[in-house]
Amino acid sequence: MATVELRFSALPEHVRTARLVAAAVARRAGVDEAVLDEVRLAVGEACTRAVGLHQSSGVSAPVRVLLIEEEKQFSIEVGDEAPRNAPGERVPGTRGADEPDGDGDEDDMGLAVISGLVDDVEVTAGENGGLIRMSWPTAPPAALAP
């Protein structure tokens, strides 16, 4: 299992870099070319959401992005450290998720976009922050050969 970790200041201008790195690592991991735009968009939404939560909560810690290459799947985890008041509620459109208290409509819209782009997504949140985990299948290495 190979993992790439990014940490960046909660500033909107860093989201583009996270998207580009995620797409490059996803391509190397064997994610289908046709899905790379969805990876970029989903990472952009998740990182933008984390940046917004950090800024609105006054959190100075960096946003964390883990790019995890496993045998048959590629996963991305976007974590924030913005505290939530009401863990334990489900987020519409996600599996096994806790709804953050965030900015309501903006949070719901971002999560809806992510849920529409990614079949396998989990959103959790608690008093120490939140995590969005997204996964995509990868092609076996033999299928990548020309």
Q: Would you mind describing this structure in some detail?
A:
Strands 1-2-3-5-4 form a five-stranded antiparallel beta sheet, with helices on one face. Helix 1 (15-29) runs antiparallel to helix 2 (36-57). The chain has helices spanning 15-29, 36-57, 105-117, 141-144; strands at 2-8, 63-69, 73-80, 120-126, 129-137. The longest helix has 22 residues, at 36-57. The chain is globular. It contains four helices and five strands. The model is unreliable at 87-102 (pLDDT under 50). By secondary structure, the chain is an alpha+beta fold.
Could you write a compact summary of the structure shown?
By secondary structure, the chain is α+β, with helices and mostly antiparallel strands. It has helices at residues 15-29, 36-57, 105-117, 141-144; strands spanning 2-8, 63-69, 73-80, 120-126, 129-137.
Tell me, briefly, the overall form: globular
**Mind telling me the C-alpha Rg?**
15 Å
Helical content stands at 25-40%
Specify the biggest β-sheet: 5 strands, antiparallel
Query: Could you tell me how far the N terminus lies from the C terminus, measured between alpha carbons in angstroms?
Result: 24 Å
Q: Can you list the strand order of the major beta sheet? A: 1-2-3-5-4
Return residue spans where pLDDT drops below 50 for at least 5 consecutive residues: 87-102
Structural class: alpha+beta
Q: What is the strand content?
A: 25-35%
Tally of strands: 5
Along the chain, the helix and strand elements come as EHHEEHEEH
| Overall average residue pLDDT | 84
Number of helices: 4
